[in-house]
Amino acid sequence: MLALGFLGTAIFILALSYAPNVPQIALYYAASSLFSSAVGVSTSFILVKSSSKLRLNESYSMLNFINSLGYLVGDVSAAVLSGFMDVKSILLIMGLLPMVSSVWSLVSVPRITNGSGKAMERLLPGGRGGLKVSLGELVTLYLALIIFYVSSGIFNTLYPYGLRVGGLSRTWVMTIISVGMGGIQIVGFMITPRMIKVLGGNARASSRALLLRGLVVLSNWFNFINPPETMIITGLTLYPLAAGIAFSTFYTASSVIVFERLSSGEEGRGLGAYNFITGSAYLAGSLASGYLADSIGIGRSYMVAGAMLWASSYLFEQIRRYEAARNSVINAN
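The structure corresponding to this sequence follows.
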């Protein structure tokens, strides 16, 4: 599946470079995104099957560190190449790279997973299944995730546009986004395992990270009552906290919470459902962002997104209480 995901992504990116009209561009891009989503699910599945419980935070942080580094290199490369190459040539290069990844995965992945068939038994309590959780805990977990990804869809869609509306140039917008979602996020994934340990576990770390991200998102409405220079200052200081440190901590911690609750033998299906739910929530937030900005304005839309993050933070605190109660029962027995 991993090799197929790389190959399908490559084929449709190459097709995209020859698309003659907007409908075909949309079709090929959607198909490429479909196959690239298989890459995300497959890599998470391999990681879950190959990691012990004690190393899952570290392993997943490293995976996302590599992903973030790749995105940053890709963004910078595209910016540089666009100075002397046309879009079609850049797309052709982009299409060839996943083909290399496809071949590489066929060679390397068997070595990674070979002999680790019992790794999931080491990961899961009891050896044969995921954590024994109540329906209420699962509902709380997925509701918290849905709220977070709807909020992120709203904020991430509007923030670059809000910077432009506030008077910043395209260069400044790209610099701010690249620093936050590129450089600082990469650093964030490097220190995430330590931060999760300091904050007291995955659920508590998720809750605290969302409090910080919500505060930063809410504060952005001040940008619209201040000169553009304020946007530059907050964009290079506060935004990296939200998109870099807070997001990397939350994304790792919340994903591991989900991984720990996957039933043995159903990991692939569970990861697929997890990505479908969170992806759909992010899409819903992205679509809603335009309507919100049109009806209540960009600044108030930031306030809505920030309040949603705090609601999600509260739900993750509830999950921590579920875990504490379950551990008390286990220790008592």
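Residues 113-128 have pLDDT under 50 and may be disordered.
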